[in-house]
Amino acid sequence: MAIDTSNTEPISIIPGDTVKWARRFSDYPPSAGWALSYELLNAMHRYEIHASADGDSFRVVVAAQTTQAYAPGSYDWRARVTNADEVYTVATGRLTIAPSFGAAGDVRSHARRTLDAIEAVLEGRATSATAEYEINGRRLKYIPLNELHEMRTRYQREVAAEEGKSGTRGASGRVMVRFGA
User: Fold this and answer.
1) What is the pTM of this model?
2) CA distance 150 to 67
3) Where in the chain is the domain with CATH 2.60.40.10?
4) Given pLDDT bands bounded at 50, 70 and 90, which one contains residue 127?
């Protein structure tokens, strides 16, 4: 079964998957000498993708082997057409590259790793060999208990927001209500 080619840029890419889409810019057809390229950019990485001509449209195919090397994260992208000395940005957007299941390492966010470390100390799961955790240059062993609880609450909120669980619910998932006179 063939995968349909989308007429819009993807909102996410899974490393190791082939990605295809087609775009048409009536003011910049390939038959008039225009070329289309994409740039994906975040603070750490930059990737270029080149489209091929397909009649008066552009066809983009990113091979599975190419996407396998993409680093996970959020990326801004821009589409640019060029013809000789003329260059125009014709579209922009944002996409996410998911973590690869084949990649080794911790793919948790900073907030999740920090929350897990704080909770390990608070719940007494840390052994004497791993009784110290360093977070932003501070050692949890030396942070007073009340400050640890405050940090945990802050990171619970941050993790909940990352996971799309923010809103009217608190970090614990309970609905917070206040009645007044």
Assistant:
1) 0.58
2) 40
3) 12-97
4) very low
